[in-house]
């Protein structure tokens, strides 16, 4: 029998919403403007949201960290006018009454709502993303992953992609799309992870290294990233990880020495002054004024940590 | 006026005790109160069971009724259907002197009465039962689509909301105009 939810007291509605899982809350938010506002006011928090761009669809994933068994991660495939929901198989516990009148816990495996489709005729892909972020009071998505998409499609989707903390360029993304995506999406991104070597000449990589990003991670174990001393000296990024970097030992040494000096161009000799050197499994270089550079060396990588 | 006595006995002790009889403190006889709903059926409920209801507990805490006085003055809850009040009384009796576990499976399951139950429990301020009822309300739409939720919870569409809002404004305008006209008539 139906009940008129909106006739209940605000306190009761709020508590009922607290008991609902993320997926049910999203479904409720799509019923009307009033229910959208109710969900928004419930202040439910989600842990992370991910947007995956593919040529034919956008996938929006919502992860919620809950400190009990019902950890939730659900995905929506977004299209204009409708979404397909993939919440996967769920194991849920339920209670039932036995013949003796005692209630016992019963475990049931419920395959629910897999690939259900919900329609909202007036919604575009951008509206779906805005709606999902809005009801959880999020101003930005955690990560945007670009897969195999075309340039015209990138031009279209960039119009409605929200701010994201991380841009992830997958190995299946075309080099030219990756470069343009990096250039055009940089203003709304703080961190970039590129999982393939998209650089064909020296100029390319230096453009990336001079950006104002908080973090840049380049990973391609099959195609090492060629970097030079000039590339490294031009770095403007707080956290840079290049795996593997193809650089000569000589240039690496020069980089260490030069970056320890505050006046690189004016007095290079000063940079060497007062350097103490210590070898354990890692190296700690201390400049005359006390500033330190921690160099950690492993079989496959060298990590420089500049301490301020 | 008919009367039912729900799950309690005046001969029964208020609380089970595990202490040896010789060491036990003299038992205070439990007091009982009487409530009735819209159907006027009177339910006899112990003060211990009624403690779940903040509203009733507040009403009886300073009354100091004798059994006879309490019987002669049942608390009327005319806004609560008799069967709903029966459910509430049953629940209070079952949970007398016990805290309700977070997942209480010994609670009424009648979903068709859930809405009325929520209203009654809210009115009677029975926090634990309200919590459970709200969970039941939430469970009604578990795994449902927006359209199914709209149906189960009778949620109006945006167009219906707008129409209702317009209608309310129109009515308010008419009422205001009527009041003005009446005031003008009075002035004449």
Automatic annotation (TrEMBL), chain A:
Gene, per the UniProt record: Cnig_chr_V.g21573
Highest taxon, organism lineage: Eukaryota
PANTHER family (alphabetical): CYCLIN-RELATED F-BOX FAMILY, F-BOX ASSOCIATED DOMAIN-CONTAINING PROTEIN-RELATED
The organism of origin for this protein: Caenorhabditis nigoni
Pfam families from the UniProt entry: F-box, FBA_2
Lineage, uppermost ranks: Eukaryota, Metazoa, Ecdysozoa, Nematoda, Chromadorea
Domain Sdz-33 F-box: 205-258
F-box domain: residues covered: 5-45
Protein name as it appears in the record: F-box domain-containing protein
From TrEMBL, chain B:
Low complexity bias: start-end ranges: 8-25, 178-188
Domain SKP1 component POZ: 38-96
Domain (SKP1 component dimerisation): residue spans on this chain: 127-170
UniProt GO BP: protein ubiquitination; ubiquitin-dependent protein catabolic process
Keywords linked to the UniProt accession: Ubl conjugation pathway
Superkingdom: Eukaryota
Name of this chain's protein: Skp1-related protein
